[in-house]
Amino acid sequence: MFEKYLKRVEPHLSQSKHIAAPLLPQLQLDAHTLNKKRSRMRGTSVTDRLSKLSAEQKCDIAAREIEELRDEIDRAKEDAEKVVDNHKAVMEEADIALAEIKKAMYEFNRDIVQGAVNDRTKKVMAEKVQRYFEEKIRQRDTLVEKLRLKNAALRGQKRKLNLQLKQKEEMGEVLHEVDFNQLKIENNQYLEKIDERNQELLRLKLMAANTLQILNSYRKKLHTLTLESNRLKTEIGQRHEILNKITTENDQVHHEKKVAKSVNTNLKKQLADYKVPEIMEYVAERSNLYDLQKTVKSWERKVEIAEMALKTNKKTWNKIQTGNQLQNQWTQPHLEMLRK
Question: Does the predicted TM-score (pTM) go above 0.90?
Answer without folding.
Answer: no
